[in-house]
Design a protein that fits this description.
Blueprint lengths: L2 E4 L8 E8 L9 E3 L2 E3 L11 E6 L2 E9 L4 H14 L8 E4 L6 H13 L21 E5 L5 H22 L7 H15 L2 E5 L1 H7 L2 H7 L7 E7 L7 E6 L1 E5 L18 H15 L5 E11 L11 E2 L7 E2 L7 H16 L3 E6 L3 H7 L4 E4 L3 H14 L3 E3 L17 E2 L8 H11 L7 E5 L5 E4 L2 E6 L4 H9 L2
Parallel strand pairs: 1-8, 2-6, 2-7, 7-8, 11-13, 11-16, 12-13, 15-19, 16-20, 17-18
Antiparallel strand pairs: 3-4, 5-6, 9-10, 10-13, 14-15, 17-20, 21-22
Helix pairs in contact: 1-2, 2-3, 3-7, 4-7, 6-8, 7-12, 8-11, 10-12
The structure holds ligand BES and zinc ion (2 copies).
């Protein structure tokens, strides 16, 4: 991970300079100047997403356009781009010239972008180490005020996000349920939270039947992962649940489209794991209990079937209409287990739950479901501040008929090709025991997608910073 160190001045400096510039005016007669370089405004005036590179006397000046006003997410993306696409310009000496105008949040955003820029999707390719990741490398910075704390936070945020990117982007023959539980155990030791892993035998004994049904066709043992972060001054108690389907074939209702992307079906789990790391790393003064039900939805003689009736931890019976609507089956056991055994004051679940939410909201925001207005506003505010957006969808009881079954207490799919994200949320709600502060985020459209940073779809780490910011803002 990148180390940072302050540099008192640029006297006798040779190396690479990262110089953020707020937009001026392209017809201005005043050039943009820094250190040894001067650029005419008609060539470069700081427009957003523009950059200008000039080499003078052993100094590579990289002028980075920020635009007139800039938000957290834009700064982060701009700096991620610089670190990831200009790595050939970086040698041993690199200085980030922090503008006087930068707030601590802007410093944090820029630093987390620079760290994220070292992430490389080519996990199995022979590729050179990013220059920032050389063990002797230190990224230097010059600043007018004390920004050390903001830099530390930026590094911690991106470090946790990179863990989540790894977990989602690595292939499903590597990231199986055991890989996730091992990750949790290791992170718990390193960052300071308790981890309990419940395997198949214990889960059977406990009655986590809905969870176990989904994994019964897989050779990989399901893992029900419980993480508990308990700081001494645990003010308020939060509960988190993340969908951890390490691969979703659809089961016997096998997918006929889009299966190749279904390694991303544990992105909710990966976000919760990354958030637990970050919450503990930042030593937030809140108790956080997180549950990740992890299993694989496979096709096999042992697979559960459409029309099976299964039991759940909460004691409600479920008619399985479609084995591809599996996420809700593992989540409800996670939610009931969390509520019964831990009683958190607020509960958030994150899941790549439905294709329907992608049809509704696309790739720009998650679907937010909650009946608690205060919670809804706080989650949206946290997301807007850092560029991980969400938009509310209804949980009205008129949609309840979609999950009414004739043979069991409830069914897992309406059988109709409409309002899929809403009926999935209604199914979850049925198991939340009317908890007054529960929210569900359907992240199917935002967890994994296209961006300028790779040619194929890849993880975004949506949720890691969002959940942490939300808890921190209490
Ligand atoms: N894992 C999928 C949802 C998904 C879709 C995630 C696109 C990421 C990107 C989920 O398990 C699923 O298959 N949902 C079905 C439900 C249907 C069968 C009721 C869907 O949305 O089509
Ligand atoms: Zn599915
Ligand atoms: Zn799924």
């Amino acid at each position: 991970m990148i180390a940072f160190q302050s540099i008192p001045n640029l006297n006798d400096f040779s190396g690479t300079l990262l110089i953020p510039v707020y937009e001026t005016y392209e017809k201005s007669i005043i050039p943009i100047e820094f250190h040894l370089a001067s650029v005419a405004a008609k060539v470069f005036c700081g427009k957003k997403d523009s950059s200008y590179v000039v080499e003078i006397a052993d100094c590579t000046h990289i002028f980075i356009g920020l635009g007139k006003e800039t938000d957290y997410k834009s700064i982060k993306t701009i700096f991620r781009r610089i670190a990831s696409k200009h790595k050939d310009l970086f040698g041993v000496n690199v200085v980030f010239a922090i503008p006087e105008k930068f707030s601590t949040l802007q410093v944090e955003a820029a630093v987390s972008g620079l760290v994220l820029g070292t992430y490389n999707l080519g996990h199995y390719k022979k590729s050179e180490l990013h220059p920032f990741l050389d063990s002797n490398f230190k990224l230097q910075y010059s600043a007018q005020s004390d920004v050390a704390e903001a830099i530390k936070r930026g590094v911690k945020i991106a470090t946790a996000q990179i863990e989540t990117l790894n977990l989602v982007d690595l292939p499903p023959n590597k990231v199986n349920p055991k890989y996730l539980s091992d990750w949790a155990v290791q992170a718990g030791k390193q960052f300071g939270f308790e981890v309990t892993v419940i395997g198949k035998a214990k889960a059977t004994e406990l009655g986590l039947h809905s969870f176990l049904s989904v994994g019964q066709g897989s050779a990989n043992e399901p893992q029900f992962i419980i993480m508990d972060y308990r700081p001494e001054s645990g003010k308020k108690h939060f509960g988190l649940v993340g969908k951890g389907i390490t691969f979703d074939t659809g089961g016997l209702n096998i997918k006929t489209a889009g299966m190749v992307q279904m390694k991303c079906d544990m992105a909710g789990a990966a976000a919760i794991l990354g958030a637990m790391q970050l919450i503990a790393d930042l030593q937030l003064p809140y108790r956080v209990t997180a549950i990740v039900p992890a299993c694989e939805n496979s096709v096999d003689a042992q697979s559960f079937r459409p029309s099976d009736v299964i039991q759940s931890y909460a004691g409600h019976s479920i008619e399985v209409i479609d084995t591809d609507a599996e996420g809700r089956l593992i989540l409800v056991d996670g939610l009931s287990y969390l509520i019964k055994n831990y009683q958190p004051e607020t509960i958030i679940d994150l899941a790549t739950l439905t294709g329907s939410v992608v049809g509704t909201l696309g790739y720009e925001c998650a679907g937010l479901f909650t009946k608690n207005t205060d919670l809804s506003l706080k989650l949206q505010a946290a997301g807007d501040a850092i560029g991980e957006r969400m938009w509310p969808l209804p949980l009205w009881d008129v949609y309840k008929s979609d999950i009414e079954s004739e043979i069991a207490d409830v069914k897992n799919y309406s059988g109709k090709p409409v309002a899929g994200a809403i009926s999935a949320a209604k199914f979850l709600e049925y198991f939340t025991q009317e908890h007054s502060s529960w929210a569900h985020l359907d992240i199917a459209g935002v967890a994994f997608g296209d961006s300028e940073f790779a040619k194929t779809k890849h993880a975004t780490a949506y949720g890691v910073h969002l959940i942490t910011t939300f808890i921190e803002n209490q």
